[in-house]
Amino acid sequence: MMQSRSYVSAIGWCFPKGALAILPLALLAFAGASAQAQTATDPGVRGVSWCVGCPNGSGQYVSGLNSNQAQMEGPAANFFDETNIVAGGDNVKRVGLGPGFDSNNCQGCHAYPAGGGSSLLANPLFGVYQLMGAANVMPFFETPNGPTVVARFPYQSDMTTPDGHVHQLFTITGRTDAGTCDIQQPDFNTAAAENNLIFRQTTPFFGGGLVEIIRDSDIIANMSANLTQKMALGISGHPNTNGDDGSVTRFGWKAQKRSLLLFAGEAYNVEEGVSNEIFPNELNETPGCTPPFPLGPPNGNGTHGVPDDRTDWAFLPVKGYLMPGDPERFGIFGRFLAAPTPSTQMGLGSEGCPGGNLGSCSNGAIEFASVGCVLCHTATIPGTSYTGFTTPPSSIAALGNQPVNLFSDLLVHDLGSCDADNVTQGQATGDQFRTAPLWGVGQRGFFMHDGRTTDIVQAIEDHYCAASAQYPASEANAVVDAFNALDSTDQQDLINFLRSL
Amino acid sequence: MVELKNRRVRQLPKRASRLVRLLALGVVASWALTGILWAQLGQQATDPGVRGINWCTTGCTNGAGTFQSTLTPQEQASEPPAQAQFVTSAIVTDPNSVMDTGLGPRFNSNSCSSCHQQPALGGSSPASNPLFQVYQTDGTDHFNNTMPSFETQSGPVLVPHLPPSSGGNGLVQQLFTITGASSAPGCNIQQPNFSQETGLVFRQPLPTFGDGYLDFIENRDIINNLNSNLPLKTSLGIGGVASMNGDDGSVNRFGWKAQWRAILPATGAEEQVEEGITNEQLLTETDQTAGCDVNPIPEDATNYAYTGSSMTPWYFLADAERDAMFVRFLEQPTERQYCPGGNASSCSNGLAEFKTIHCDLCHTVSYTTPPASIPSQGHIVLNLYSDLLLHHMGSCLADNITQGMAEGDMWRTPPLWNVGQRIWFLHDGRANDLVTAIKEHGDGFQRSGCTGVGAYPNSEADAVIKAFNNLKNVSGVAGTAQQDLINFLRSL
User: Fold this and answer.
1) Is A243's CB within 8 Å of B315's CB?
2) In sequence order, what are the beta bridge partners of B410?
3) pLDDT tens, B123-133?
4) Closest in B72, B216, B264 to A281, CB measured
5) Which candidate, A451, A450, A460, A453, places its Cα nearest to that of A485?
6) Could you tell me where the beta strands, DSSP code E, fall in B53-191?
7) Where would a tag sit more exposed on chain B, N or C end, judged by fewer CB atoms within 10 A?
8) pTM of the shown model
9) Is the distance from CB of B247 to CB of B259 less than 8 angstroms?
10) DSSP reduced 3-state for B104
């Protein structure tokens, strides 16, 4: 088992255990694993490498909200951008950072190309980790121009018992608002040396309010659609499910979360160290590192205890929308974010497709379907029989009866040992990941769960993996082969299409 | 033997024979006397019954169900809207309002208070099964439901699960449907055919008093308690594990199998699973049959109509949030205010016996809350009588359902605070006699129908139950160890 475990390095390639010394050789060997080599090139990030200056088509609120809902846009966006500190400051809702944390606000990691998005092209953690005197050192795997990744240890120190949890990158030790707290960062170097360190980058949640309400029955029906074709290609997939009601969970790299609210509760506590009404305790309860913390500057806000964030009665009876805790307000923000708009649908003319040829993108969509990408990356593809999801009627009327062209079946699939992180979450085992939604992929800087590549062509190749002793072959192998078998024009069109999303 | 005995008697002289007869009579008499005394001392204690119903019927306060008295005025002001939410009965749909709608398509009951009301709002299953008031109507619509045989008028509210070992998925099998409702004319789904299902397991409602404090007991305190008294625990066969949350590794602590971390996720799940009301945590109906999902989803949502200035800003919060607020502010029950028989020393002695035989190794007497962001909730000693850990309870209590780290025979140590006012005991309400409930903790007590399902280790409580059985007792008489222990429990 151990021999087949893979390690993902800071620069993001997949290697057998013990092969770190021969990285270049392993890279070459892996790149040649698929049937044929690709010839297409990635035109790069929309808005950066091409279509520079074009509107990004992301980060807006959904249209059609009623006036009460629309009033939430300002407060919710302001909240999403707010920076948390340990204690003090001018706003009681902005305290509670740490004792361990990955960043100090939502916007830090979900920022590209707009609030609610994915990892910035320049890693924002370099502006966070030593704020206010924090004594942190930057872990070796975070790089200034790399993705924001969080770290997990698949196993506990005995290297047998599953761990799988996030090990927060930084601590509040040394910060001027952290009193006498004195705890150390995790020993990532040792974890890496023991081949017990994996990474995940941030997922965007544009269109999250739509994804949230897709019917389970539609997800299951889609899983059962085109079965003959799927079976011929080695594609199966299954839902991850919630332990309470059996519903299909759908957020996160392993589809481990059912809803934005539950996702937010975890993110606050795990990523920022802000305990809340869904996760009420600090993850590190070392004396001196848990609240209460002093008031800070005059009129500053101390913290009385846990949870750091909670329903706030202080705003009664004036502003009801300030009463909920941060996860609820995150939920409002995420719920109202519209789906990303493909550049081909933004009235940009030929500029809306890389290379200035709209026909390339429309053909690319057809090729996307023909090679079988669409069998997992579910979407409506004009000119084909493939159709995507539609939301049911919603109590937020603007979200109801809407097409959801997210390019995902919201199922988890085996991707083989090359992508495996050896972490099980719910029904998603160590090599299984949710089909990552591709809407907005044209504006992403990093790909795959650990941000291992900036090249979307390489990302496709990274879907390929032969069977190992521990894991089956990737379900994507036949599709990657089909992609590689495309002629160079069709292959490039497919890539251009993806970058237009 | 008889022949030999008779022959020997015949061989004795007359005087000696009389002496032998006297001696024999003496022996028989002493045996009989000893037997009577032994029978009396060996009798098990008797359960004085439910406080407020069977004893202490007048002049006793509930000691449960009140809001915490030290809250700020603003927090206290939340009580009416929070309580109103807790007692609100949901209906299937209302074209003029989205509030309090969304019952079904499948459901167990139509309000929180229906199942959580003994001895006060937030509590456990009441004496009269409330489902009989619910199963065929929500007050507006009629439903075609029949009552499953395992629900009885004077029994506990029971929610069925069908474990994987019996072909199910382990999840709640909702009892009723909205089929027949005029507001859902296209809905025609059927109740599960419970009479044909073998292997059903059941759970009764848990009380929520004091849960607002349990919400934030520090993980390290729970783990430190797990690791305390280890030699003694080991010698008694007691282990226990914390139910670690898959997201952040914190200790889950709510529900029969400690499957929830906090009140809010629990209220979200309960609203969806027990009432069929989709909400912002669990957004899709458990049954999505066409014609049955009559409302847009989620049915319970943030009420944006209360966004601006309003004298009722609580209603901005979704129902699940206000339910959580209600539970969060419920005070912990008071204990040993009254003792059965009016003999306070019996209950204080019972607490000593409770510790002597080591019930307290799992039913940990108390935790203390850390500093709290609601300051009045911090530094409170909670006499909950639970370690909040999972323990193997053997095959006779197993339900063969795994939830998180809780295996098929594992249960969270249920807090005993307020056990004096509970009517039914154990996860499936199988006993209404506290003494029986204690004995059911041990594998040695083979209840009728216990088939020893699955291959499970012995109950971790075996040694403690043996010690309980060995406690000296004269039935119903205070001042004897076993009865005092029972009296103490009923004083909680």
Assistant:
1) no
2) B392
3) 999 999 999 99
4) B216
5) A460
6) 106-107, 159-161, 176-177
7) N
8) 0.91
9) no
10) coil
